[in-house]
Amino acid sequence: MFAEQLTHLPVEIGDYLPLADSVTVSNGNKSAILARANAAQLQNWPQLPASLYLKYYRTGNRTEFEAPYFQRRQQLADLVLGEYIGRQESYIDNIIDGLFLICEETGWQLPAHNAYQRDIPTLPLAISNRPVLDLFAAETAVLLALTVYLLKPSLDSLDPEISNRIGRELQHRVIKPYLDEHFWWMGDGKSKMNNWTTWCTQNVLLASLLLPQSPITREQVIRKAAFSLDDFMKDYGNDGGCAEGPYYYRHAGLCLLQSLDILSNVAPQAFESLWHESKIRNIGDFIVHTHIADDRYHNYSDCPARLNVSGIAEFHLGKKSTASGGRDESVPSRTNPQTRSLLSEHWFTNRQRPSVSLGRQSWTQRQ
């Protein structure tokens, strides 16, 4: 399905532009964003020593490393959003510190994912000259790429090397291994795929399209991404049902739709027509069919009975993919209060892509 569209790729793939020229946020939401940024400004940056990375290999404990790892990224995300909304350069020095701390990490992959093949023992430590491209290495890449995308004038006014350093790190840790290596989640046409395929693919697409890349590199990334997305879809029935359940829909089916959204933005002549495919529409409809009431869902597979879904991403993509062709009116009732407030403001326009993450989850998804 996706690979068939590659014959229609334009000669040159342009930049992905997820935001309109200006973003308007109500005073209430602006205050909430700045409150989080102010709190992050007062926090020390978490440390990630090698001995902490080794804890998983030695004991199997994931949380001791992952808690400060994700805190570091969430802290940066809060500061970046505060800087973007406030535009006072109040947080810029702390943002630079966070950027360089992450750039200087030996590996961006989690210790529990530190392996080059599926279902083999993990390595004790990350190998700096051969990165592993896991879920959160790819998410880290997007966090840094979006930081440059949103704050490049402020960063460049201090020193263009900040943006250049991030570009080099993305090339070394994400783009090059994506094109040169084969990780299991990329698919081989036979093995069963899961949410890793679409989740990683979406973020690699973002990392390669938000910041400057050569036209050849962008085309290579898109061609490989198309194969992976097709391999993911082969495991879905025509009804669009997600075997991983409603909880992982946000990382499985929803990331498929977000990947299509990115591709149809930079190459509409190739990918826009896929929104009319019944299988893709049914994948979009899945979360509506599994919704019972309020925050309750059919909790099969790895899914709790109660959860908050992605809200804004679901709202935006549902308008393009649902069989009804319109928005799912139940979305506001199934999201957290902050997301409902944003939906009521119509903060995002049709040209914006609200699903982009600035950390492990977008700020609209956090509880």
The count of strands amounts to 2
Low-confidence segments: 323-367
Rg for CA atoms = 20 Å
Q: What's the total helix number?
A: 14
What is the overall pLDDT average?
87
Q: Order of strands in the sheet with the most strands? A: 1-2
State the end-to-end CA separation. 36 Å
Q: Tell me, what's the shape?
A: globular
The proportion of residues forming helix, as a percent range, comes to 40-55%
- Compressed to H and E, one letter per element, the order equals HHHHHHHHHHHHEEHH
Biggest sheet descriptor: 2 strands, antiparallel
Structural class by SSE content: mainly alpha
Quaternary status: single chain
The fraction of residues in strands falls at under 5%
Concise overview:
With 367 residues, this protein is mostly helical. It has helices at 27-41, 50-59, 63-86, 92-103, 135-158, 161-180, 195-210, 215-233, 245-249, 253-266, 268-271, 278-289, 312-321, 337-345, and strands at 291-293, 296-297.
